[in-house]
Amino acid sequence: MPIIYEPSGMAREYSPYACNLYIGCSHMCKYCYAPRVLQRSDESYFGVPRPRRDVLSHLAKDLQTKSYKKQILLSFVGDVYCRTADNSRTTRAALELLNQHNAPVAVLSKGGRRMLRDADVFRAFGDRIMIGTTLTFLDADKSTMWESGAALPQERLHVLKELRGMGIKTFASFEPVLEISESLKLIEQTLRDDSVVHYKIGKLNNYKGMDKGHDWQSYLHEVLAMLRPANKQIYVKKCLRDVAPDVELREDEIDPERYIGRVPKLPL
After folding, report:
1. Do β-strands 4-5 and 17-19 pair in parallel, antiparallel, or remain unpaired?
2. CATH superfamily of 4-253
C-alpha cells in the first residue's frame, strides 16, 4: 500500500505529494474537515492518535521504489506533532527516512514547541525542507475556543522565530480565516519578528456560512499591502482569488509550486 500520494483539489495547492502518518488528532479544531472526509464522528477522530499500521515500512518501500523530486507534505490528515501515543517518534523516524532518500519535505503543524524536538533533523535536510504552522488567532482565548488542544498562538509564533533563527525556511498558512482582524494582526506580528518566509493566504470555506459575512476583497488588498513591501513569498489560494476577482495578482502569487519543491537557499 503506497503511503505517499498525490493530493487533489484544494489540497494540491499546498503540495504535489503528501504522507499521513497518523489518523486522528488531539487538537480538537472545530472547523476540522478530516472527520467529515474520513466519515468518522468527532468522538472517534479526536483523541490521542497512534501511528498508522506499518506506516514506516510502507514509507521505506515507497522511497525505495521511486525518487521523489517534488515536495512531500506531512500531513493533511491529523498533525504529526499533536499529542500522539508514541510521542511523535514515528514523525522523527519518517523524517529521517525522507532525508536519507533526499526527498523535499514540508511539515505543517499546530504542535508548537513539540516541533523543536526534531530541529536537528530539520537542519539535516538543508534546503530541502520547509516548516510551517497554521495561524488563525492572535487572541489566546479565541484560539482556545476554536482549537482547544493546539499550541497557543504565541507559542506557534515563537517556534517560527526560533526555526527561522536556525536557518530553516518557515511558512505560515492563513486558512481558515475566522476573523479577518485576527489574521491581519498575526501577519503584522510575523513581519515584526521576520519569522516567516512564505505566506499561504486562503479564506474560510464552507463552515456554517460564516465566510459569507467577510469582505474578502478588502482583506486580500490589506494582506498584499503588508506583504509585498516586505518582499515576502506569497501564494494566494484559488478559493480567495475566486471571491476577490478585482484584485490584481502577480504570476508568482498564483503559482502553487513556485516556492516549493527543492527549496532554494535564502539569506537570513
Report:
1. antiparallel
2. Aldolase class I (3.20.20.70)
In this prediction, residues 154-168 reach a mean pLDDT of 98
Percent of all residues in the chain with a pLDDT value above 70, rounded to a whole number = 97
Q: Check: CB of residue 171 under 8 Å from CB of residue 160.
A: no
How remote is the C-alpha of 86 from its chain's centroid? 22
Give me the chain's average pLDDT, please: 93
Q: Are 259 and 235 in contact (CB under 8 A)?
A: yes
Q: Tell me, what amino acid is at 130? A: M
Q: Which residues contact 223 (CB under 8 A, 6 or more apart)?
A: 174, 183, 184, 187, 199, 201
For 119-141, write each residue's pLDDT tens digit: 999 999 999 999 999 999 999 99
Give the residue-averaged pLDDT of 62-87: 95
CA-to-CA distance for 160 and 130, rounded, in angstroms?
Answer: 11
Q: How far is CA 52 from CA 48, 80, 113, 183, 209, in A?
A: 13, 12, 23, 33, 34
Whole-prediction pTM? 0.93
Give residue limits of the domains in the chain: 4-253
CA distances from 83 to 51, 75, 94, 162 (A): 12, 15, 17, 21
DSSP state of 25: B
